[in-house]
Design goal:
By secondary structure, the protein is α/β, with parallel strands linked by helices. It is about 30% helix and about 25% strand. The chain contains 9 helices and 10 strands. It has helices spanning about 45-55, 75-85, 100-105, 115-125, 130-140, 155-170, 185-200, 210-220, 240-245, and strands at about 5-15, 20-30, 35-40, 60-65, 70, 85-90, 170-175, 205-210, 220-225, 230-235. The strands form 2 sheets. A 6-stranded mixed beta sheet has the order 6-7-8-3-9-10, with helices on both faces. Strands 2-1-4-5 form a 4-stranded antiparallel beta sheet, with helices on one face. Strand 4 and strand 5 form a beta hairpin. Helix 5 packs across helix 6 (about 155-170) and helix 6 (about 155-170) runs parallel beside helix 7 (about 185-200). The two termini are about 20 Å apart.
Length: about 270
């Protein structure tokens, strides 16, 4: 990947739900390939809606969203599925199948490339043990390859979800609140793991975080989102306490967030796999 190429370009992006609730209001944002970016802001600021735009689950109500210079509004069918496969998503809820072995959940990252019969056969006999083992080695739980997923800890399950994304081999990794359900020590470990993977593979990484400390400690670029707008887009050394206090002054509902959303949209599980 050439880090000088532009991965995302958002121009005056607005997202409404029901024609009344405004989740994003005039977002302008450019992200180059290979960049590592943290998104912070209060609950309901619009971060989840933004992530769903970036992984092509949602489309803007107005404005333009480009991924690698392709206008997402013009993409449909096979071409849209191809773009989605280039984006790997990690969620707060891992979207794993608990009763399956770890290897099956990891190799689910290949489902977007496999025909139906091969996908079904993989449930009986995993098709690429070495690939799954390699991905699990990168997240440091290779020994869990054949264990049942629901027997792992929450942190280990999050690592399985990351390994699944590595098997998908995307250009972009989007992680939406990936550590909000684990303890602070483990949270730091997982964020550092994501950053290390991005650095070593030159994949673009965008992570939405509740923890300001993690964002400032691990990311060279931090974007603050408030009321559906970009409040700041700076390196950590240029972000001061007054900016953070202003960012978190108030809490605004994000109509696109799962717990409050009444609109019907496409399921998010494996959405990026096509």
């Amino acid at each position: 990947m050439d880090s000088t190429l532009q991965q995302y370009r958002l121009e005056s992006v607005r997202k409404e739900f029901g024609g009344q609730q405004v989740a994003l209001d005039g977002i302008d944002l450019k992200i180059d390939q290979g960049e590592k970016v943290a998104l912070i802001g209060p609950s309901g600021a619009g971060k989840t809606t933004l992530f769903r735009l970036l992984n092509c689950t949602l489309r803007p109500t107005s404005g333009k969203l480009y991924i690698a210079d392709e206008d997402i509004a013009a993409l449909h069918g096979q071409r849209l599925r191809h773009v989605r496969r280039r984006i790997g998503s990690v969620y707060q809820q891992h979207n794993l199948v608990p009763r399956l072995q770890v290897i099956h959940n990891v190799l689910a990252g290949q489902l977007g490339r496999w025909p139906t019969l091969r996908s079904l056969w993989s449930l009986c006999k995993p098709g690429d043990v070495e690939l799954a083992h390699s991905a699990l080695s990168q997240v440091e739980i290779a020994e869990k390859l054949f264990e049942r997923t629901d027997e792992l800890s929450g942190g280990q399950q999050q690592r399985v979800a990351i390994a699944r994304v590595l098997v998908q081999n995307p250009e972009v990794i989007l992680a939406d609140e990936p550590v909000s359900s684990v303890d602070p020590t483990l949270a730091s470990t997982i964020v550092r793991l994501l950053v290390d993977i991005s650095r070593s593979t030159r994949r673009t990484l965008l992570v939405s975080l509740h923890s300001v400390d993690l964002a400032l400690a691990y990311f060279p670029r931090v974007v603050g989102i408030k009321q559906g707008r970009v409040a700041f887009d700076l390196s950590p050394d240029k972000i001061n306490d007054d900016m953070l206090e202003d960012l978190y002054a108030g809490n605004f509902r994000d109509p696109g967030a799962p717990e409050t959303r009444s609109e019907t949209i496409e399921p998010i599980a494996y959405q990026s796999l096509g």
